[in-house]
Every structure is written in structure tokens, then in C-alpha cells.
């Protein structure tokens, strides 16, 4: 089943790549090839190999149970929230929250997780901001 | 030969500057630590470090030196969990568990660890010596390659990856195509046409390589660990025993190490094969050659030495096609190649002639780094063993933070962070479905080169497509590629 879905997705992606490429309006091309053929070729290779995957499926894949999948989706949502929060609230606070939440996901106790979050965020922030001299967003602390 | 020695000497003057010496040592130490930590692996370590190295504006040769040191340092660290816990940290350490863990159970864990440190050293140094002989010659031969030959060579590399890389060929080709398509995102260099940018200004320069690598590997790895509910954090209670091998133990394993170094190097040079095949092959070969009593698999010291030596030799061997041809032989060398491209350096045979300080500085740093690693690993192994007790609640959230900080450092872009998260989810799902992510990486780093070479070849021929198959080198490589793709299927059907 996994291979059928995967194959279908790959075929879809490959065809979409070709269709999008066909729509490019090339008025001038500096060489005999131009920008279109290579992506179309890659899209065709993707669609063809995807078709092979879908038509000759391999073994079964054990996907996580629904509850575990929910945890993974929450983790993904957490990643997105971290990305969006980094600039407004700043690296240090956002990272403290992420490290605390992450420690909880991996089974630390609440108290320990909070300590880990605060200490870990401070250490990593000091290391990157001052040790490597790479500026990180200050956010609320600016 | 004397010319090579002069270049190598010049390389040492690069590798031994205080900055580069310090970077090689720190990288080697960091690599051992990361290799010893459960579930991270050298590729992730190099991926996490790449944006930081770039953001602090290290010169390119220094960046490569530290990244490469992390890479082969990881080979030293990977054996610790394999021997003491029977947990291979990465696929290439699987063979080390076979004889390493029985030795540890007998109370000889310390000897197994020090012998593998010596083996890793012999593998690393031996392969570096072979590389010094082989790489310049390969690069010189490749100077005669025209654009069409290049296209054929890269097709051959993909076919090799698909034919013997371990995953299903169709899935490997699909993954390669995904990488090729990713490489086309952004404004086309020839015409300025925007390809797959969907009007997003930030995508005009394409998706940054670091974003894809960190997403597909580091972020995906943490998601996989959440899925497995990794608990880890195992405390090692075993007695290590004496940690220095006896002289006769070294004498007994040395021939095995030398043979395994050669095997590992050759396997490493072939693209798409990599360290796990090298380790398996070396172990099997040694069992055939020297195991008269049937001790392999029950804690034979030669059975520990063989895979660990071959593993490190293969890692170094994988550098040969990367440096001499600009074609990476493994996921990690693909990342190193991506690092060169971040610095606008086009890898390939010209690199030896145009940027000798990079190539020879890097090669000389292998010697330095391996010496540092041997010096670190023999006395400090008990310290590294403690790392196995680090709980996942500390480790894996930290990986995410470093991943995000690194992606941020390159472009200060929120979109990049979102893309890295997206690639993380795709990487997790793709890996579960059997899509080889390393192939995506290879497609991504080689995509632009392939397209440029195709366009150059057809510009030379005035649009005549047959030019891609002109010339003996190109024809031979295309035939080889076709054979590699067809043979496994034929063998399954008739074999």
C-alpha cells in the first residue's frame, strides 16, 4: 500500500513539474537547449520511476499507530511554531520553550525539563551568539 | 612523484597553520563525540556544522578541514556503542558488533576499543596514502573530459547508486530526480526565467543546500526518534578491562588491517557504495582468509579490526571522486561538495590545478586529523564511553535547536526554517517508505552541473542531441550505466 501511494505521489510530482515547466514563457534562450528541457527530463524520470514503484510494490511498511502519529504531528506543529516565533519573541525565549517541550516529549520530568530548557538555551545562545559571533534574533529581550 | 610530494608539502603548510590545526583537532574530537552519541551520526553532524562554518566566514580550505575531520572522526566514535552496547550507531558499525560485543562480554571491551582505534587509524592513513597516489592521476585523466563525458559520468554515478546502493533502483532514481528538480528551483542562470519559484522572491536564488540537508537529515532523524520513542541513555556497567592491546595482538591484526584498508578504499571510491558495504566486505573477506578456527562472530580480534579499518578507509576513499571528479561518493561527501559550492567553488578535476591549497591542505589535514584521533582515542576512550549515558531528553531537542540556529545563520530567513521543517517531515516519511535520501542529496548537488554540461555540450554541437553520446568515454559510461540498471533485474529474473 505504501508503495502504491508513494508511487502515485511521485508520478503526480513528476507530471506537475513537467506541466509547470511547459508554462514558462521563454522569449530568449542563450543556447539551443534553454531552461525548459532539463526540468522536464527530470520530471519525466521522476514520473517513470514513480510508476514502476506504484505498479511493482514492495514489502509492507509499519507506520506509527494513530496516537504516535498525533505526537509526530504535534512535534511538526512545534517546529513550525518555533520557526514563526524566532523573530518576534527571540532565540533565547523560544529555544528555552522548545528545549523544555522537547525534553518532555523524550520523557524528562517537568522540573528537570524546565531546568534543561533554561540552561540549555542559555548555553547554546552564548555559544553561537558570542562564541561563534553569529547574530541571533533578540526578540523580546532586545 | 616528486611534484606530488612538493604539493603535499605545501598542503602541510596549509594544514599546520594554527587555525587549521586547531580546527582539525576540534573537528576530530567533535566527530568522535557525535559518532559515539546514539542516533546522530556523522552526516547529521556535518550537516549541522555546515551553516555555522559558513556563517563565521571561515576560508574554504578551513571549512573543509573541520567538516572532514568531523566526518572521519565519526568513524572513530561509531564503534563505541557497537562494541559495548551491541547497538550500531550507523549502518557501517553493524559488522563491528559481531565480534566487538562478544569481546566486551568477555571483559575485553577495552582491547576491542583500542584495537579498533588503531584499525581506524590504519584505515584512515592507508587510504590517505592511496588517495595521494590515485586522486591526482584521476583528476589529470578527467581534464580531457568534455561536457558530454561529464554528463555520462554523472549518469553512471547515479546508476551505480541505483544498482548497488541497497535501495530499490526505481526508488533511488525517483529520489535522484527529486534532487535534480530541487536543483532547478530559482532563476535560470542562462535566461533569468524563474523556475518553480511561485512568485516567492526568496526562492530566486534557489533553495539553500543547507536547508535541504538539515531538513532531510537532522530534522527527519529527530522525528524518527520521536516515533521510536527513543529511550537510550544506557549506562555502561561492563568492565572495560585492560585498554592497551598486547604487542602480539597488534601483530596478529596488522595484516588484516592493511588488507581491509585497501578493500575499504576501493569500495569507498565507487560512488553509491559507501562504508557499510566496505565493512561487510572486509569482514567477510578476512573470515575466508584467516579464520581457520571458526572464531569470527564469537569475539575474534581480527573480526573487530577488519570492519572498523575498512569503514574509515572507505570514508577517506569516498573523498577521491569528490575531489578529483566533483562527484560525491556518499551522503557526507555530497555535503562537503555542497560546502564548496557555498563558496562558489566548482568542484572537479580543475580543482587540483586551480585551488591546490584547498585540495592538498585537506589531504594533509587527514594525516594530522588521524594522528589527533589516535592520540585522543587511546587514552580518552573511558571518557567517550560516558557519553553513552547522555539521556535523549537532553540530546535530541538540542539537535533541533542547533539545526534551526544553523539554518537561521545562513540567510536569517523564516522561510528557510519553514522549508527545513517541511523537508524534515518529507525526509521522515520518505525514509519510512524506502526512498534513499542520500540519492536526493546527490541529485541536488549535481543537478546544476549536469544541466550546465548538457547545455554546454549541445551549444557546442549546435543542438545536435547525439553529441551527448559522442566520444568513446561517454559511450562507455552510458553503456556501463545501462548495464548497472539492467543487470540486477536480470539476475533476479534468471539468477
Model description:
The complex is a heterodimer of chains A (142) and B (495). Chain A is mostly helical. In chain A, α3 runs antiparallel to α4 and α4 packs across α5. Chain A is flat. Chain B is mainly α and 495 residues long. Chain B is 75% helix and 1% strand. Chain B is built from 20 helices and 2 strands. Chain B has a two-stranded antiparallel ribbon with strand order 1-2. In chain B, β1 and β2 form a beta hairpin. The model of chain B has no long low-confidence stretch (mean pLDDT 86).
Q: Strand count, sense and closure of the main sheet of chain B?
A: 2 strands, antiparallel
Q: Look at the helices and sheets of chain B and give the structural class.
A: mainly alpha
For the largest sheet of chain B, list the strands in their spatial order: 1-2
Helix content bin of chain A: over 70%
Give the overall shape of chain B, derived from the CA principal axes: globular
What string, H for helix and E for strand, traces the elements of chain B in order?
Answer: HHHHHHHHEEHHHHHHHHHHHH
**Beta-strand residue fraction of chain B:** under 5%
SSE topology string of chain A = HHHHH
Low-confidence stretches of chain B: none
Mean pLDDT across the residues of chain A is: 90
Report how far the terminal alpha carbons of chain B are from each other. Answer: 46 Å
Portion in strands of chain A: under 5%
Cα gyration radius of chain A (Å): 23 Å
Question: How would you classify the quaternary structure?
Answer: heterodimer
Number of helices of chain A: 5
Instruction: Report the span from N to C terminus of chain A.
Output: 52 Å
Number of strands of chain B: 2
| Mean residue pLDDT of chain B | 86
Major interchain interface with per-chain residue totals: A-B, 71 and 65 residues
Amino acid at each position: 500500500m505504501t508503495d502504491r501511494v508513494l508511487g502515485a505521489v511521485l508520478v503526480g510530482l513528476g507530471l506537475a513539474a513537467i506541466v509547470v515547466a511547459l508554462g514558462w514563457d521563454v522569449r530568449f534562450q542563450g543556447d539551443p537547449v534553454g531552461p525548459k528541457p532539463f526540468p522536464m527530463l527530470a520530471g519525466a524520470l521522476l514520473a517513470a520511476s514513480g510508476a514502476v514503484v506504484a505498479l511493482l510494490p514492495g514489502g509492507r511498511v509499519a507506520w506509527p499507530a494513530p496516537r504516535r502519529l498525533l505526537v509526530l504531528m504535534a512535534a511538526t506543529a512545534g517546529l513550525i511554531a518555533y520557526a514563526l516565533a524566532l523573530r518576534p519573541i527571540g532565540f533565547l525565549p523560544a529555544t528555552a520553550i522548545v528545549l523544555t517541550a522537547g525534553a518532555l516529549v523524550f520523557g524528562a520530568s517537568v522540573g528537570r525539563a524546565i531546568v534543561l530548557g533554561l540552561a540549555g538555551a542559555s548555553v547554546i545562545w552564548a555559544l553561537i551568539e558570542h562564541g561563534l559571533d553569529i547574530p541571533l534574533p533578540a526578540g523580546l529581550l532586545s | 612523484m616528486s611534484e606530488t610530494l612538493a604539493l603535499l608539502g605545501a598542503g602541510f603548510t596549509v594544514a599546520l597553520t594554527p587555525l587549521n590545526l586547531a580546527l582539525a583537532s576540534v573537528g576530530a574530537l567533535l566527530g568522535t563525540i557525535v559518532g559515539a552519541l546514539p542516533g546522530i551520526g556523522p552526516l547529521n553532524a556535518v550537516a549541522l556544522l555546515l551553516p555555522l562554518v559558513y556563517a563565521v566566514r571561515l576560508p574554504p580550505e578551513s571549512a573543509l578541514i573541520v567538516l572532514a575531520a568531523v566526518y572521519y572522526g565519526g568513524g572513530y566514535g561509531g564503534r563505541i556503542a557497537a562494541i559495548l552496547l551491541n547497538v550500531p550507531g550507523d549502518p557501517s558499525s553493524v559488522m563491528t558488533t559481531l565480534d566487538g560485543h562478544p569481546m566486551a562480554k568477555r571483559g575485553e571491551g577495552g582491547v576491542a576499543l583500542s584495537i579498533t582505534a588503531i584499525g581506524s587509524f590504519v584505515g584512515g592513513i592507508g587510504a590517505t596514502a592511496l588517495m595521494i597516489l590515485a586522486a591526482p592521476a584521476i583528476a589529470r585523466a578527467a581534464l580531457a573530459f568534455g561536457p558530454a563525458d561529464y554528463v555520462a559520468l554523472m549518469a553512471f554515478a547515479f546508476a551505480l547508486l541505483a544498482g548497488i546502493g541497497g535501495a530499490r533502483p526505481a526508488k533511488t532514481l525517483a529520489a535522484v530526480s527529486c534532487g535534480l528538480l530541487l536543483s532547478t528551483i530559482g532563476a535560470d542562470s542562462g535566461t533569468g526565467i524563474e523556475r518553480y519559484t511561485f512568485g516567492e522572491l526568496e526562492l530566486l536564488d534557489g533553495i539553500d543546500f543547507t536547508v535541504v540537508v538539515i531538513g532531510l537529515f537532522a530534522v527527519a532523524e529527530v522525528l524518527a526518534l520521536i516515533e521510536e520513542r527513543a529511550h537510550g541513555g544506557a549506562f555502561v556497567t561492563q568492565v572495560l578491562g585492560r585498554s592497551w592491546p598486547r604487542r602480539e595482538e597488534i601483530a596478529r591484526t596488522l595484516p588484516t588491517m592493511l588488507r581491509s584498508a585497501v578493500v575499504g578504499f576501493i569500495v569507498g571510491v565507487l560512488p553509491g557504495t559507501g562504508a557499510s558495504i566496505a565493512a561487510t566486505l572486509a569482514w567477510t573477506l578476512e573470515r575466508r582468509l584467516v579464520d581457520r578456527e571458526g572464531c569470527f562472530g564469537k569475539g575474534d580480534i581480527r573480526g573487530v579490526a577488519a570492519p572498523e579499518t575498512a569503514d574509515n578507509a572507505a570514508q577517506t576513499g569516498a573523498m577521491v571522486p569528490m575531489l578529483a571528479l566533483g562527484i560525491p561518493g556518499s551522503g557526507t561527501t555530497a555535503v562537503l561538495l555542497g560546502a564548496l559550492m557555498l563558496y562558489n567553488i566548482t568542484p572537479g578535476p580543475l580543482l587540483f590545478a586551480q585551488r591546490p591549497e584547498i585540495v592538498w591542505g585537506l589531504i594533509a589535514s587527514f594525516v594530522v586529523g588521524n594522528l589527533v584521533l589516535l592520540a585522543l582515542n587511546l587514552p580518552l576512550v573511558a571518557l567517550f564511553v560516558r557519553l553513552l549515558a547522555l539521556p535523549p531528553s537532553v540530546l535530541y531537542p538540542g539537535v533541533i535547536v542547533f539545526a534551526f540556529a544553523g539554518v537561521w545563520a545562513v540567510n536569517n530567513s523564516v522561510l528557510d526554517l519553514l522549508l527545513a521543517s517541511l523537508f524534515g517531515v518529507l525526509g521522515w516519511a520518505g525514509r519510512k517508505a524506502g526512498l534513499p535520501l542520500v540519492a536526493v542529496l546527490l541529485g541536488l548537488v549535481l543537478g546544476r552541473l549536469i544541466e550546465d554540461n548538457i547545455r554546454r555540450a549541445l551549444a557546442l554541437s549546435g543542438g545536435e542531441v547525439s553529441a551527448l553520446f559522442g566520444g568513446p568515454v561517454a559511450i562507455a559510461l552510458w553503456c556501463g550505466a545501462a548495464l548497472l540498471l539492467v543487470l540486477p533485474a536480470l539476475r533476479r529474473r534468471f539468477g
